Amino acid sequence: MAQISPNKVVTITYDLSVTDENQEKVLVESAEADAPMVFIFGHSGLPEEFENQLSGKGAGETFSFSLTPDQAYGDYDQQAVVSIPKQVFEIDGKIDEEMLQEGNFLPMADNEGNHMQGKIVEIGADTVQMDFNHPLAGMVMHFDGKVEGVRDATQEELDHGHVHGEGGHMH
């Protein structure tokens, strides 16, 4: 039976809960059998400790583990909340009011061209306050799930850095 190791395509189902301010577990995401998470082990971009916890498991095995912020997406960084002039969001001199809504995530780029997601926190008269922290920054994450499948990645998948076919990228 194939075990999870580098360059294997891994299919998992899981429930992700986080610990809230009352130290209660709150379910924030589920990957069910009809839409599992599929990734290439060692190329996923997921936190290293997430992959470490799955390493060596085979299809049918269950898992249950927690990741602290320092093992995952880091502490919440107040410096990552910034005000951006509203005119930055103009397209042809107009602001798309549908796009510019509190709570929306927008793809942005910094001065060096690095791409990131920002969440609109507040819209002022002349500025838009955006939060560039990962949505799970500062949170303890709890994963409970099952390994649904493990197979060798194809050379094309390794070359492209992502899974093709069912649960993966379609070209």
H and E string:
EEEHEEEEEEEEH
What share of the residues lie within helices? under 10%
For the biggest sheet, the summary is: 5 strands, antiparallel
Oligomer: single chain
Computed CA radius of gyration, to the nearest angstrom: 19 Å
Could you list the spans in which at least 5 consecutive residues all have pLDDT below 50?
none
Mean of residue pLDDT?
91
Distance between the termini: 30 Å
Report on the structure:
- The protein is mostly beta strands and 171 residues long.
- 8% of the residues lie in helices and 40% in strands.
- The protein has helices spanning 48-54, 155-160; strands at 8-19, 25-31, 37-40, 62-67, 81-85, 90-91, 94-95, 105-109, 115-123, 127-131, 141-152.
- The strands form three sheets. Strands 1, 2, 3, 4 and 11 form a five-stranded antiparallel sheet that branches.
- The mean pLDDT is 91.
Tag the structure with descriptive keywords.
single chain; 171 residues; mainly beta; 4-stranded antiparallel β-sheet; 11 strands; 8% helix; globular
Write the layout of secondary structure elements.
Blueprint: E1 8-19, E2 25-31, E3 37-40, H1 48-54, E4 62-67, E5 81-85, E6 90-91, E7 94-95, E8 105-109, E9 115-123, E10 127-131, E11 141-152, H2 155-160
Antiparallel strand pairs: 1-2, 1-3, 1-11, 4-11, 5-10, 6-7, 8-9, 9-10
Short description:
The chain is mainly beta and 171 residues long.
